[in-house]
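[step 3/7] inverse_fold.run input=structure_tokens len=472
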């Protein structure tokens, strides 16, 4: 089979990784990547259902492709990812020009499905079982692992890779659709994870990010012993070519002292923890079905900061959750003030049909109030991010150079010189990341990409440090 494919990805790291893997599989099946949708024969949307807005955008993008489909009747239009699992055949009803709907637990069938549609033109629906009212084992089996062989050129950056350590989620926070669309929590075996990491290291990867919805819940039973995230970190740490290890996302329950000690003691494990609080109010946390109190969360942040020198902690917040009062929101403001996160992602609550919150509570905070709370919290957080960054002025930081900065790429294109053609000694604007995940912009030759170097921080902004290279 020949032809070109294009995958448009939205959503979290899980989707970014799935798209990378799906691209490898399609290449193996004989397809080649297209540079844009316009010249593709197969267009796939890898979708997210976490908020309504993400879904609306994909539905309108699919709608806009009606003409593409009319002008290219053998073109294949597919919807993969979380919205495929959530909406299933509704997608065919809303957009009859869609050929394929494939959920995240069925991606192992993707290449086969595309090939069969190319052959017989029959639409295909590949989804996992609905979690509710089905035996757990059957549901688990229907969300199949998807971690095929990696193919380095499919990654944006050859030096960094994400490695899935677990699928699904069992937390069922009342607002969240992820447990429904990604299925039950399942941890991958340490042997398999290690083999994948070794392969990535051979391909030249120096930084691994272990991903899962709640990575600190990682549990794998091996010969009667339960292995945890701390065991996994210890197991992969000795892999020689790996220089940095990260993991996201952590849940605020189950960060035990052993795990914190492991993060502190293993030099390749980076001092960075993304551990979303979601709200600063106990009553909201109860309605959200997060299983901790604010007192416990604050104590945890203190423990993390005491245990791990130089650690950066980041969080997520939902504002305007069902019934959130002014006072409850002010408690979130206080938490952000006190915890001094490196940064926070702030979201306006979006009701998700099929979740407990949608069933139990009205979405009663007006949009204008959600917006105002979002802006206030963001402003507070950005001020803190700026202050924390200012503390870096005059300091040396070790960074992994990621490549040419997006701005510099834009300029190079404007002056008609491709990034790849830039002579290796010519100085351009590069970006890198500190151990605590801060972005550093500095000038240097592109050949530094993938190396760990030291720079002096000379200036800062809320989201960026500006550095200068040490004289060689
Ligand atoms: N597993 C991770 C992240 C899940 S989704 C965790 O537990 O933290 C990423 C973020 O989206 C969440 O942390 C939450 O802040 C936000 N989110 C999830 N459901 C949402 C909803 N219904 N409305 C608005 N934001 C939501
Ligand atoms: Fe969603 Fe909660 Fe699971 Fe995170 S832990 S994915 S917010 S249900
Ligand atoms: Fe979205 Fe699915 Fe991730 S709903 S946030 S892409 S797990």
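[step 3/7] decode complete -> sequence:
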């Amino acid at each position: 089979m020949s032809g070109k494919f294009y995958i448009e990805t939205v959503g979290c790291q899980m989707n970014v990784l799935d798209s990378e893997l799906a691209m490898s599989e399609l290449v193996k099946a004989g397809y080649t990547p297209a540079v844009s949708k316009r010249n593709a024969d197969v267009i796939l949307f890898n979708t997210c259902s976490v908020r309504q807005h993400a879904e609306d955008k994909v539905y309108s993008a699919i709608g806009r492709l009606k003409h593409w489909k009319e002008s290219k009747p053998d073109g294949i239009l597919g919807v993969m990812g979380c919205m495929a699992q959530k909406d299933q055949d509704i997608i065919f009803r809303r957009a009859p020009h869609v050929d394929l709907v494939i959920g995240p637990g069925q991606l192992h069938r993707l290449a086969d499905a595309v090939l069969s549609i190319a052959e017989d033109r029959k639409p295909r629906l590949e989804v996992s079982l609905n979690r509710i009212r089905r035996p757990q084992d059957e549901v688990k089996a229907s969300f199949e692992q998807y971690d095929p062989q990696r193919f380095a050129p499919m990654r944006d950056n050859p030096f960094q890779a994400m490695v899935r350590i677990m699928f699904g989620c069992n937390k069922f926070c009342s607002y969240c659709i992820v447990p429904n669309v990604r299925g039950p929590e399942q941890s991958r075996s340490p042997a398999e994870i290690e083999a994948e990491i070794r392969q990535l290291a051979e391909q030249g990867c120096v930084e691994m990010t272990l991903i899962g919805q709640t990575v600190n819940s990682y549990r794998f039973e091996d010969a009667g012993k339960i292995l945890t995230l701390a065991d996994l970190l210890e197991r992969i740490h000795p892999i020689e070519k790996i220089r940095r290890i990260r993991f996201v996302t952590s849940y605020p329950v189950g960060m035990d002292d052993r795990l914190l000690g492991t993060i502190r003691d293993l030099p390749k494990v980076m001092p960075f923890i993304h551990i979303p609080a979601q709200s600063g109010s106990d009553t909201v946390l109860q309605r959200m079905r997060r299983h901790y109190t604010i007192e416990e969360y604050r104590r945890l942040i203190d423990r993390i900061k005491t245990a791990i020198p130089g650690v950066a902690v980041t969080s997520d917040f939902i504002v305007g959750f069902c019934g959130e009062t002014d006072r409850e929101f002010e408690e979130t403001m206080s938490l952000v003030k006190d915890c001094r996160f490196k940064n926070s992602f702030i979201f306006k609550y979006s009701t998700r049909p099929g979740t407990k919150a949608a069933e139990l509570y009205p979405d009663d905070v007006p949009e204008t109030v959600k917006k105002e709370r979002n802006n206030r919290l963001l402003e507070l957080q950005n001020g803190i991010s700026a202050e924390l960054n200012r503390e870096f002025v005059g300091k040396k930081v070790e960074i992994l150079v990621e490549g040419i900065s997006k701005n510099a790429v834009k300029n190079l294109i404007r002056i008609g010189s491709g990034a790849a053609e830039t002579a290796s000694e010519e100085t351009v604007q590069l970006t890198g990341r500190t151990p605590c995940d801060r972005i550093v912009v500095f000038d240097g030759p592109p050949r530094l990409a993938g190396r760990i170097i030291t720079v002096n921080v000379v200036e800062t902004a809320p989201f960026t440090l500006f550095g200068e290279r040490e004289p060689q």
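[step 4/7] annotate
Residues 396-469 form one domain.
The CA atoms of residues 149 and 252 lie 33 Å apart.
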